[in-house]
Every structure is written in structure tokens, then in C-alpha cells.
Amino acid sequence: MPAATQAEMEVIQFLIHQPTPDQIIAFHPSPEVAERFYSLVNREREGSLTPAEQRELETFMYIEHMMRLMKAAAYKALQQKAS
Prior knowledge:
The chain is 78% helix and 0% strand. It has helices at 6-16, 21-26, 31-46, 51-82. The chain starts with 5 loop residues before the first helix and ends with a helix.
């Protein structure tokens, strides 16, 4: 199994601290992770990604998808709590 990316480690560290719905909604990746993501996106547009970089980009996309789902669920939980 390949080593975890910095993005994966950030999300793991965030989740093991049992964030509140508000903290989930406010979560953003570090500037370093965001910079790496945009670098990979730009290189993909140029068609110059290695297979390892393509897998890394796919991992970023999956993490982003999961975080969006978690944020939507957290927002819904806050709305229900306020009702």
C-alpha cells in the first residue's frame, strides 16, 4: 500500500479529534496541500502527469468529494439542531 499523502494525513488528523459540525464546515486544507492540488491540476491540463501523480490527483479528488459530503451532512445536522 502506498504511503499516505499529506492531504490524507491532514484529514485523518482532523477527524481523529472528533470535530463538531461547525468545525467540519469550516475545514480547509493547508496552503501546502492546496498548492500541491493546483499544481497537479495544472500539470494534468498540460498532459504531463506521471502515473503516480495521476493517482495522487485522484486521491485529492476523492478527499474533496468526501469532505463535501461531510460538510453537507454537518450543515444538515446544524439545521436540525436549530429547529
